[in-house]
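Project standup — Tuesday

K.O.: blocked on the structure for the chain from last sprint. Re-posting the sequence here as requested.
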Amino acid sequence: MSRPGRSSLNLELVPSHVPGAIVHHGARWGLLVALAMLTYLLFPVAGGVEVTVLQEGDVSQSEVIAPFTFEVYKTSAEQEREAAELEAQVRPIYEYQGQVADSVLAHTDSLFATLQSTEGAEATVAVADSFGVRLTPEDAEYLLTGRRLSRFGRAVRQLLDRQLRRGVPVGGTLDEEQSREILVRRGEREGMARRDTLLTHEGFLESRHEVHPDPNSALGDLVFVKLLNGLFRATLVPNSTEYEQRRRQMRESVDPVKETVQENVRIIDANELVTADVRDRLIALRRELLDRGGGREGNLPGTAGQILANALVLSVFWLLLMLYRPATYSGIERMLVLSLLFALVIIGAAATHRIIETDAPEFIPIPFAAMSITVLFRARVAMVGAMVLAVLIASQAVYGGSDALFIALVGGVVAAVSVRTIRRRTQFLNAAVLVTGAYLLAGVTVGLRLDWSLAEMGLTGFRGGLSALASAALASTLLPLFESVAGQTTDLTLLELSDPNRPLLRRLATEAQGTYAHSIAMANLCEAACNAVGANGLLARVGCYYHDVGKLKKPQFFAENQVSGSNPHDKLKPEVSAGIIRNHVRDGLALAEEHKLPQAVKGFIPEHHGTMEITYFLERARSRDSDSEIKPEEYRYPGPRPRSVETAVAMLADGVEAALRVLDQATPEKLRDAVDHIIKHRIEAGQLEEAPLTLAQLARVRDEFVRVYGGASHNRIDYPAAGGGIGAEWEAASPA
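H.V.: unblocked you, prediction finished:
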């Protein structure tokens, strides 16, 4: 057994000689230096004047004088508010169309002239319908009675002439307008009118009572309304195109410059309280310094200082890996993947600053890196990585004075923990929802402190939602690539490998049923024990599924598959039989390579046997030959010994599952003694010397083996044979 605290992953040992150690560490820390330089190159550096951007309510420690004339720009929220105010000043435009009124009156005259020469109700209905007026035969009979047709014709024309000349819009149009005033245009003249003074379509119909030819008749009123509605055409029409054009012009007229600060003007004095306007001037001055790039050329100490500052921030993460995650640190491929993720975040943050003029820390892709690192490595590593990235990005001058650190930190940390137990790729969407909520909460927190509007707080949540969805989609898409380069096996891949319809598992279930049953039982033991000691239970289960696939080549030579009672080893020499048993490891590795099993799973095939002796055939050989004639290597598995917690527990579970099958009346005491014996034997054989297992962990492994096996082998009721039971009564009645 190894000392406590060592990683459960396979380690690439650091070379003990000095040149090798320099190369080993130099390659990994060289990646850090490259990231520090990349950060320096992508982010502008302010030189010449040091500007500390203070928050509103702080007290300035020194005087700040404008070194040159510069402009203070409005924030996007301020520009949006001003644009909305200007847009609100634009009134809806309605145009009077006199030609429509003329057309309606001519149409009305034609209708009633035709009706005057029409006889019969049916003919009247048909004529009215051709003019767009829907009448029933009853309506027609009413109109044709007496002189009603003439009276209704005069009343309809009079009302249409009077009201359409005033201007009447389509019904409901004015109700949809938000503005209280309407710009009404009549030819070349236009003027403002209160919306409630304009005649609506409802008002037009209501005015019929002023000229009603038969006000006391319900049928007459119905016919009058039908005639008015059928002949009505709107003469006051909204000009939406011009209205929207004016609104767009007003929005575009917003001046992005809030004020111009002249050279040598005092921005703030020492010991003076910082106001919102002063803070905006300090931010504008800092941005102007960055745009001028005062510290980029001819300032070697400044360049070195900025790169060193970046490197010191990154070194927190590198030291964490070196001291507490040596397996990750030792693998150069893993460090390359981590460095690539960091580089993508740095590039994304720089692109965000250049593409989006205003501060938008929600678009810094830290959640993408955090999700990827959690799935590839662990949530703890991802959390620290997210924190380091947030500090690194927020420490750049372009994000100084903003809330980038707080917002990016909250989003990154929540992203790291949101995928810590991911079992399906669709869970990335759930993670995106959590990250969106985190950004919204961060926006509300900052907004309450800085007196933001609800719209500004909501904008933070909206941006965060877009960033979270993009991060989740990108992480899910690129994860297989990162997994391949880093040599890592994620839980998603393990779950895919655990599908019983995978070719190897299907073959095992059909061609070597005994081995398959043993693998399932062993997987149950191993997963429970690994979970109990904090190891990867899912990896343990999947590794156990595949640990004996090499037996597929000659399944009949293994006891669990010999159902007929005949044993082919009875006809073979011990060394031949031992070779067949030993070679199932080699055959298993070949099958694993053929089916492209990941290294983490392939490790179970040789390591679950380690370098144990094949004792059964070794004893047969000793009973036949002298020790001098026996070659020990022929009766020993090739190894290597277990080098991870998962493969070490698999070795113990393999022995326990096979041994406990022969126990009669497996009481908890017998189970515990048997498990203790097997564990003790493996320790004495030196098989656990390379495995990172402590004595305390071994005790928990033993307890889990006893608990799981005891639950699986519990006693059942001995049902009578008459009821379908096959207990003692059935055995006694069965023929010999």
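K.O.: great, moving the ticket to review. Residues 89-248 form one domain. Residues 46 and 292 are 8 Å apart (CA to CA).
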